[in-house]
Structure prediction request, 1004 residues.
Amino acid sequence: MAASSSSSSYIFLILLFVILCVEPSQTKSIYLPRNNFQSSLLVNKHEKTKMPFKVHYFPQILDHFTFLPKSSKVFYQKYLINDQYWNKDGGGPIFVYTGNEGNIDWFAVNTGFMFDIAPKFNALLVFIEHRFYGDSMPFGNNSYKSAKTLGYLNSQQALADYAVLIRSLKQNISSESSPVVVFGGSYGGMLAAWFRLKYPHIAIGAVASSAPILHFDKITPRSSFYDAVSQDFKEASLNCYEVIKGSWAELDALSTHEDGLIEVSKLFRTCKGLHSVYSARDWLWEAFVYTAMVNYPTEANFMMPLPAYPVEEMCKIIDGLPKGASRLSKAFAAASLYYNYTQTEKCFNLEGGTDAHGLHGWDWQACTEMVMPMTCSNESMFPPTSYSYKEFAQDCKKRYGVEPRPHWITTEYGGYRIEQVLKKFGSNMIFSNGMQDPWSRGGVLKNLSASIVALVTQKGAHHVDFRSETKNDPDWLIMQRKQEVAIIQNWLDEYYKDLKQN
Amino acid sequence: MAASSSSSSYIFLILLFVILCVEPSQTKSIYLPRNNFQSSLLVNKHEKTKMPFKVHYFPQILDHFTFLPKSSKVFYQKYLINDQYWNKDGGGPIFVYTGNEGNIDWFAVNTGFMFDIAPKFNALLVFIEHRFYGDSMPFGNNSYKSAKTLGYLNSQQALADYAVLIRSLKQNISSESSPVVVFGGSYGGMLAAWFRLKYPHIAIGAVASSAPILHFDKITPRSSFYDAVSQDFKEASLNCYEVIKGSWAELDALSTHEDGLIEVSKLFRTCKGLHSVYSARDWLWEAFVYTAMVNYPTEANFMMPLPAYPVEEMCKIIDGLPKGASRLSKAFAAASLYYNYTQTEKCFNLEGGTDAHGLHGWDWQACTEMVMPMTCSNESMFPPTSYSYKEFAQDCKKRYGVEPRPHWITTEYGGYRIEQVLKKFGSNMIFSNGMQDPWSRGGVLKNLSASIVALVTQKGAHHVDFRSETKNDPDWLIMQRKQEVAIIQNWLDEYYKDLKQN
Prediction:
C-alpha cells in the first residue's frame, strides 16, 4: 500500500500553511495534491460503524440571516446522539460537540474525553456536523460547485445551525431545562467559545480545546505558528532543527539540476516520478508541521499512526544518521516516520489527491472569513516567507470570485481587546492549550477571570485533552482533564442553584 | 389642509396592531391606508435642514453573513455626525444611536436627550440609519420590490452594519480607544440592547428606552399591550374607557345600515365618502393607541402635535359631552384631538395612504422575524380578538412569498430565560420604560443586576426620557434622566480605569 501525502482531513492546518506561508505564486500548484478530503471521508465512513451513536438528520434552514425566497430551503444536517449514560430526570446535562471542518464521525472518534466523562455526569452526548462537511451538504454533490453554493458556508451560519438544532432537540426530548455545555477542538473550539459568547442563553459553558481565537488580524505575531513548530524540534535536538533548516536549500539546489526531479524521486522513494520538486517540499513540510501538532505523549492515530512524542522520535532518527549523509536525506528519513510509522509503505505518493472536485470547505473558509496571515521568520526551520494580503486576496478572487473579509472575524467576535472583553463580559469558558501545538500561540493562555480559565500544559499538543484516556497518560494530562471535569461540575452546580432560586 | 390617518412613520406600532390584533381576514384591506411611510419621510426631509449634523454615507456591505457573489454588493448607509461637543483627547466618548424603522433624521430630532447630555460628556454624536429606511436603500427605488430585495432587511444585518460602521469610523478618526455607548428607543432600543449583548467588544454600554425585548413568543402575555392602552384610559376616567369600549358596537351596527357608510362619513367629517366602515374603526383605534404611547407630561409633537397628558385630555372631551350623545360620536370627538389638536383641519382623510409602493420595511420585518403576537382581551376597550399564527403566516406567505420564523428572535437573542441570562452574563444596560406606554409590558421592568438597571416611571410614556428637556418637565423625568447620566458616567469611569490597568 502506498501512503498518500495527506491522508487525514485535517484541513484546518493544511490550508492555512499552504495558502499563507508558501509564496502566493506557488499556491496554485500546491493545492491539488492536498485535497484528499474525499478519501479521508471514506476512511471515516468505516470508522462510523464502530461508533456507539445513533445517526440523525435535522431539517436545517439554509440561511438564518436573510429572508430571501431561497433562504428557507431546508437541508439535512447530520448529528450523532448517545444517550446510554443520560439521566435526564436526575439532572444530567447535554454535552454538545460543535462540529468543525470535517466529517462529524471523525471528530466523535477523536473526542473520547466526552465519552469518558459522560457516565460521571449522566450526560447526553450530541455531536453536530458542521454545514458543508461530511454528509451535511446543503446542495448535495453540488455544494462545492461555486460561490453561489459555498457562499452559505461560514462560522455564523454554523453557530446559528447549532442554536436552532439544540433548541429544537431540547424541545423534542422535553428537556428544556437541561443545561447544555459545548465542546470543540481546534476550529471547533473557536466555534464553542464563540457560541458561548453569542448564545449564552443556550450554552451554560464552553470547553474550547486548542482554539486559536487570537490568530486573526495582527493580534498574534504572524510568524508565531512556524516559530512554534521550529521550537518543538529545537527543544528535541538543536542538530535536528539545523538539519531540517538546512535541508530546503539542498532541495532547491537539486531542483536546478538537469536530472533534479529524478534524483528527488529516487531519494524520496516515490511510487511515480515527480512532476515538481515542490511536491517533495510540501511533503516534508506537512510531516513536520503535523507531527508538531500531534506531538502526543502516547502512541496515537489522529492524523497518522505515530509513536509517543513523535517529534523526539523524528529527531532521534536525524541525530542517529551518519554525519556525512545529506541534510535532505535526513529530513526525508525523519518525515518517513510520519508517513510510515507502521512500516507498511514500500514507496510514497507525493503527488495527486483523490478529491475529484478540487475544492473543499476549509479552503473556502480561509479565503473568505478565516483569514489568518502567517509568515516564516528567519529563525524558523522553514524557508523565510513574507505575507502579501493583496496577492492572497487576488488568488482567492481568482479561485472563487469573492473577496476575503480579513477584518470580519474580529468585528464579529472581537479583536485586539477580546481578552479584556472576555474577562469583563464572558464567563464559563475553558481554553485548554498544549504548548507543543503551534496553534497554541493564537490561543488564550492565561486565566481571564474566575470563570474564564486557561489550562496550559507545556508538554501538551493539539487538543490532547479531548482524546480518550489511556493507561499511559502522563500525570499532567490526567490532572488537566480532572480540572476540566471539576470546572464543568461547578458550572452545573451553579446552574442548578440559580434554577432553584428563580 | 386635511389630516391623513397616520402622518407619522411610527410603523413599529401601526403594523403590529394591524397585523396581530385585528382578525386576519381583515388585515388586507386595512394595510393600505396606513402605509403613509413616504409622506412621513417627506415631512422628515424638511426637519433635516434644521439639524446640527453633517450627513455622511458609509459604503456598507449588503450581506454580512454569506459570501455569495452578490453578498459583497455595496450600498450607501446614511449616518449623521455632530462633533461640536467632542473632546476626543479629553476622553470624550462616542454616543451612537442605533437607528430603527424610519428616517434617521426623525429619530435624531426626537432624541434631544443625546444632544442635551453631549456637552457634559464631551461626546461625539452619531446617528446611524437602519438599512432599508430613509435614504439607506440597498437597491434604490427597487428596495421594497419583493422578497428578493427585502430579504436583506432584518435585525442581525442591521447590528452587523452598526458594528462594521463603528469600527471603520473609529479607525478613520483615529479614536480606536474612545468608548462607544449605544442608544436606541423602541425597536431601536431593542437593537441597542442586542448590540450590547452580541457586540460587547464594540459598545461598552447600552441605553435602551422603551425596548420591548420580551414581546416575542409567549414571554409576555399576548393581551398585555391592548390591556395597557385600555388601562391608561380607565385610569383617566372609567366613563371614558366605557364609552370607547361601547363605541365599536355602534360602529358595527352602523355598518349594517343601508346608508351606513354615508352616516359614518358624515359623523367622522371625512373629506371624501368612505369605502369601508373599517377605515373609521382603524382611525379611532390608531388615535387611542398612539395617544396612550405618547401620553407625555408636556406638550409634544412626536407622532402628532398634542397637549400634555393627551389621554386625560381625550377623556375630558368624552366626559364633557352630553349624556345623550352616542358613544361613537364621543369616541370620534376624542380621536379628533389626536388628528386635529392644532384645530387646522376642516375635514379628515380616513382612507388612502401616499406610499406609492404599497410596501414598507416594518411590515416586512413583522412578517419575517419580528413576530409579536397580540390579542385583545374581553377586559380591553377594544373588540376582543384571538390570534391565529396559521392565518398570520398564510397572509405573510401570500404577500411576500416567505414564511415567518416566529421563534428566531428568541433563539438568536434569548427567550424565556433572557432575564436570567442578562442577569448573569450581561452588563452595562439601562432599560427605561414608562408605564403609560403599552410597550412597557414587554420591557425589562426590574433591575437584573448592579449593572443591568431598569428605570421605570409610572407616568412616563414611549421613550419620553429621550426627548429634549423642556422647562415644564416633571421632577420624575428630570430625576430619571439624571440617573441615566450618572450610570453612563459610571460605565465610562470604569472603562478608563480598566484601560489604565491593561
Notes: Chain B touches chain A through 51 residues (CB under 8 Å). Residues 475-501 of chain B form the longest helix (27 residues). Chain B has 19 helices and twelve strands.
